[in-house]
Amino acid sequence: MGYLAGFPITLKKWFEGVTTKNYRAGKGGKSDVKAPKPDRLHGRHVLNRYEDGLEKCIGCELCAGVCPAKCIYVRGADNNPTDPTSPGERFGFVYEINYLRCIHCDLCVEACPTEAITESKLFEFSFEDRKSAIYTKNELLVDEDGKPQQLPWEDWREGEDKATSGWMRATAPSGDSNYVGKVAWSGELGYGVRQPESVELTIKPKSGDSK
Amino acid sequence: MTATESSAVKATTGVPFTLNGQELHAEEGELLIEACDKNGVHIPRFCYHKRMESVGMCRMCIVEVDTGRGPALQPSCMLTVTPEMKVETESEATKDAQDGVLELLLANHPLDCPVCDKGGECPLQDNAFAYGPGESRFVEEKRHFEKPIPISDLVKLDRERCILCDRCTRFASDVAGDSLIHFIDRGSSTQVNTFPDHPFASYYSGNTVQICPVGALTAAPYRFKARPWDLTGSPSTATVDSSGSRVLVQSSQDKVVRIQGVDSDAVNWGWLSDKERFIYEANVSEDRILQPMRRAVDGSLEPMRWNDALKQTSEALGKKAAAIGGARLTLEAQHVWQKVLADEFSVVSYDASLGDDVSADVVDSLPKATYDWAFNAGSVVVVVGQDLKEILPSIYLRLRGVVKDGSVELVEFNYKSGSLAKLARKSVQSRPGELAKDVKQAFTATPGERSSDLNCLVDTDKPLTVIFSRPNVAESADYLTEALQVIQSVRPDAHFLPAFRRGNTVGAQLAGLTPGVREVATEDEIIVEQVAVVGRPTAEILQEAANGEVETLLLLGADPISDFPDKALAEAALDAVNTVIAVDCFENPSVASANVILPVAMYGEVNGHFVNSEGRLSPLGARVTAPGLVRSDLEIAASLAKTAPQSNSDAQSSLETSHMLGSEPIAWDLLELSSEGARIKTPTKPIQRVKADVPTVADGLRLVIGNKLWDQGTIVENSRTLAGLCETFKVRINPADADRFGLTAGAEIVVKNAKATASVPFITDSSVAEGVLWAPANVRGFDPRSFVTFSESVCYVEVSAGEQK
Amino acid sequence: MSRLTSAAVIEAEEIIARYPRKKSALIPLLHLAQAQDGYVADDAMEHIAELLDITPVEVLGTCSFYEMFKREPVGKYLVNICTNISCQLMGGEELLHHAEKTLGIKSGGTTEDGMFTIEDVECIAACTEAPCMQVNYRYAGRLDEVRFDKIVSEIREGKLAIPAHGNLGDVKQHIPQERESGIKPPEQTEAPAWFVRRMSESESEVTINANK
User: Fold this and answer.
1) Which residue range is the domain that position A62 belongs to?
2) B140 in contact with A at a CB cutoff of 8 Å?
3) Helices (H), B662-705
4) Chain B interface includes C87 (CB < 8 A)
């Protein structure tokens, strides 16, 4: 009868109550109001623009190279010098993310040298076939005002488009001394510049530096 | 990684020195950086390159060295190991120095790594990561130059990225001998550049891109085509000529995007000619034939099914058939084609060379040299025929190296002096018909009629190698043969090295696809046995075809209308035969008259083997999938075997096996192993004496049609970037002759003989022998073969001043 | 402007013959070209390359290394005004600004009549004479605005004989017999310019060491 020894645990758990949280707020998750999301949630990507409207992507393919799920496909092309798409020599001509593969690890965001690709906090979007799971530049690129496109099948909520910029951008000690030990943020078209945040200074000065 | 982890065998004799506390030995006169490399200690470097003289430009290889006077920082690429030297490559002082050097190198280096072609495989990135300070103290604006400027049709230069390591400029002046790029200006504005309107038009410009330690030099065909981490590569061999340069074929997204030279001690030392390096562009040409085609009644091409194409081919080959070409094929494909033609279809007329190169029989009868044997210090190299730079450009670099440093003596017998004439011990300007006479004179002590200093080879008993190529398609091939026989009779110990223009010519000879008497090994027995005469020379095939004795002509990647010395005969032959079947990838003048075109896989799309002019066997790697409905030569030949009328099951199964497993066209017993792979021992047969006609003496100039590296060859013409490099037609005449005939520079001249009259541009060129009119073969503008009568052993033309423009 | 004239080619061949290697004659030939045209033209560099059996870019590499070889036409008189530390302290920059204003050109520019080119140079090794300048590499020291204007007007009027730009090569190529070794005993050397000037301040307003 040894199997009965397990039952007390089952019974005990029975009365502990439910630990699963419903992300919809309100009683029983009925309401359409959703629980607030953490600041740095990894959601659907956006391709950003500079304040002058030029695209940030330079088509370097570092995101595609670093992607562990191999879900990004990028091809660069030469900028037209008279009517450039991005500053510099090259721009991202093709940019595709396959959301059936993407694991939202954000390595692409870390790899991006220009903060062109970042992630919003939107995670509710669905598709009916494999083809529409591939987001192209048409869908990913922010609009003229710098705001993410809110596509018909996506459920955008207040604040989900905010603070999508390079959240990793900790300033080096050799940079602007005003930002030592702080996480600085790049300017976001449409959202302005966020105040730098203090972080724990983990980079210890080199022994020879003080001399 | 520490030194102790190295698995290299440590030397126990030589110069004793201490490396990071370890007692080691180096060779006498060895550079410290090399000694460290050998012992598994890597010293970072930018400017040092083992195939070039070190200059100590970049200071990256600085290490702490104590020669008894206390430790000091010294560049290891400029320092030979001396006894009891103490070297510290990981000391604090060394690391500080490396930090400093990198910080300064990066002070002006732009941070455009994300869009830089080199980003990901960049020595500057790697060294900055491994040895650099991690961050820069420079906040000042970096140096700016105009972004990439084209310094040639093939190479672009981004001066911002340049770290002034002197590798490209050293390569251009020391290795290639084309000093067309140089440091300009001084101090912080120093830059590499060309002279205005003198582009870096070198045959070797692509090598500078490969050795550039940053992304300053980029190749136009590869620029932005792929990122280094996308690339996958297969080791292979260059097939555009018979040098057999070892390469790495790299692809991205199933397209060949880059070919890099591989440093092979025995062959090309890492260098490639631009033709070998950039030839892949034709693979993706829009004009490539991607499915079998048949010619409709109105002359247009229409697609057809492979089965129908093969059936039609098989039927056509069953009638009186002949085949031309096959030097482009892999050794396996050559073997199978030979079997299919001879055994299945009983075709007896086939020839892989096109009558414009050295005959296989001649080559077979001579003892062969390897490149290493030829370029060994203390030997003599005799070049008979054409400038090696135009025929085997990557091997020319090795010859130039040993001639320049004086370890090998060079004697040339050319109609137009080669690029090494100034460095040569003697450059003899011979004339068509007089090659053998001049060669003989060189070995004779008595003064000759031309000049006494011709006797330059009389007293030498040094090892002698003759590198020979067909000097002129407008003369009988016997003159070269005669000259070679003269050398062999005077110096029976001489070795010979053929310089074939076409890639796998030696393979074709081994596979029995060239005419002549063959000795091959049977499959079961190792004994080499004599077999009967096989094949027929192209000239005979075309003559028979023109006479209406051939019904089907198979072109195995051959373009006789462009290449065969007698253009009229080639045209007549293609007109006269009932069916022309072309196995090719592009339309060319000969394919234009084909009834059926079988599209074939190109370089980088097939596996197999290649035999270079030394007889060295090296692999060809398939890197990408053949596009469209294209099939490999081997597949086509094997499929044809099945449809052959007298097909017997034994041969078929042997073909299928060889198709699947890779055939064994050569008896493995014939291979000898050297440090750099297998080389085929070709047995020497008794020489067949040739007595060439004594040339008739006539007024006017003797016509020489020579080759240029860039011509209108089918593949080059279909490469986007390379097609523009072919020059326009210009004849060259010795200034003395120009004076004699009253020709003025800048005007066109009238060239005529019994066959043709033409007004052509000319330049005077003292490298051309007196009494010779030198014309390039198969270039844009004019075809000099219209002056040639194939039956005459020397072709004369008369020149006169044209009308002033 | 152009390739070397036939007279220059004869001189070039004479120069080339002095060296065991042709290439060694490169710098003397660049001087020759500069003497001919006042600057080293692209065509001249190509011509020199032909004469020396090297490539034009090798000529350009050497030519562009040296500031005193000009690759663009300059004025007949090249005015180098020093703005390095000693001269700067003594008013070198003010002198440069004055020169720019009076000649109506910026540093690096040439006056419309092709007479003057101003250059802003680093130390020309005459700190004792600060602020100083060179006119076609002939020194003038202890300058102020008045003295500068005087030199300019004297040159314009032809009173001050300074050889036209580009003649340094001539000087170098025709060394007097007795100075061929280039060494003189100290007692035979002339007194330094500053010494002479201080001893005879009243003799001349302006001291120009025009040695040709």
Assistant:
1) 36-145
2) no
3) none
4) no
B347 and B380 fall within a common domain: no
Q: Do A61 and B113 touch (CB under 8 A)?
A: no
A172 to chain B, any CB pair closer than 8 A? The answer is: yes
Q: Is the separation of the CB atoms in B430 and B454 below 8 Å?
A: no
Please tell me the distance in Å from C147's CA to the nearest CA on chain B.
34
Res. B658: pLDDT tops 60: no
| Contact yes or no for A174 and B147 at CB 8 A | no
pLDDT tens string B701-752: 999 999 999 999 889 999 989 988 999 999 999 999 999 888 887 788 999 8
Q: Per the CB < 8 Å rule, is B179 touching C58?
A: yes
**Region class of C87: left (phi > 0), else alpha (psi between -120 and 50), else beta:** alpha
C206 domain-assigned: no
B730: CATH? 2.40.40.20
Q: Pick from B173, B178, B195: which is nearest to C60 by CB? A: B195
What one-letter code names the amino acid at B33? I
CB nearest to C57's CB, from B185, B186, B198: B198
- Whether A31 and A24 have beta carbons less than 8 Å apart is answered as yes
Q: Can you list the alpha helix ranges (DSSP code H) found in B430-546?
A: 435-442, 478-490, 505-510, 538-546
Run of H or E including A41: none
Q: Among B117, B63, B101, B103, which Cα is nearest to B85's?
A: B63
CA atoms lying within 13 Å on the CB side of residue B75: 14
Least CA distance to B113: which residue of chain A?
Answer: A60
Give helix B633-643 / helix B649-661 axis angle, nearest 10°: 160
Question: How many whole angstroms separate alpha carbon B94 and alpha carbon B61?
Answer: 9
Closest B-chain CA to C57: B195
For every residue of A116-130, DSSP letters joined together read -EEE-S---B--SST
Is the four-CA dihedral B66, B72, B75, B80 of positive or negative sign?
negative
Q: Do chains A and C touch (3 or more CB pairs under 8 A)?
A: no
Which value does ipTM take for this structure?
A: 0.87
Alpha carbons B494 and B615: distance in angstroms, whole number: 17
Most B CBs within 10 A among A89, A115, A204, hence the mutation to make, goes to A89
Residues 67-96 of chain A with CB under 8 A from chain B are 76, 78, 88-90
Nearest to A65 among B115, B135, B229 (CB): B229
- Do residues B369 and B461 both lie within one domain? yes
Asked if B180 and C57 come within 8 Å (Cβ–Cβ), the reply is yes
Q: Could you report the per-residue pLDDT of C131-172, keeping only the tens digit for each?
A: 999 998 889 999 999 999 999 999 999 888 888 887 775 655
- The one-letter code for the residue type at C166 is G
Position B682 scores a pLDDT of 58
Q: Give B77's contacts (C-beta < 8 A, 6+ positions apart).
A: B31, B32, B33, B45, B47, B48, B54, B56, B61
Domain count, chain C: 2
DSSP per-residue codes, C136-168: TTEEE-S--HHHHHHHHHHHHHT-S--PPTT-H
Query: How many domains in chain A?
Result: 1
Average pLDDT over residues B155-177: 94
pLDDT at residue B573 is higher than 90? yes
Report the gap between the CA of B776 and the closest CA in chain C (Å).
Answer: 24
Contact call for A174 and B114, based on CB within 8 A: no
Query: Does B115 sit within 8 Å of A89, measured CB to CB?
Result: yes
Say yes or no: C119 and C36 in one domain.
Answer: no
Rounded to whole angstroms, how far apart are CA atoms B529 and B421? 44
Residue A177 reports pLDDT greater than 60: no
| Pick among B99, B113, B115 to test the A interface (most A CBs inside 10 A) | B115
**Tokens representing residue A76 in the block:** 């660069």
The DSSP 8-state label assigned to residue B467 in this structure reads E
The CATH number covering residue C38 comes to: 1.10.10.1590
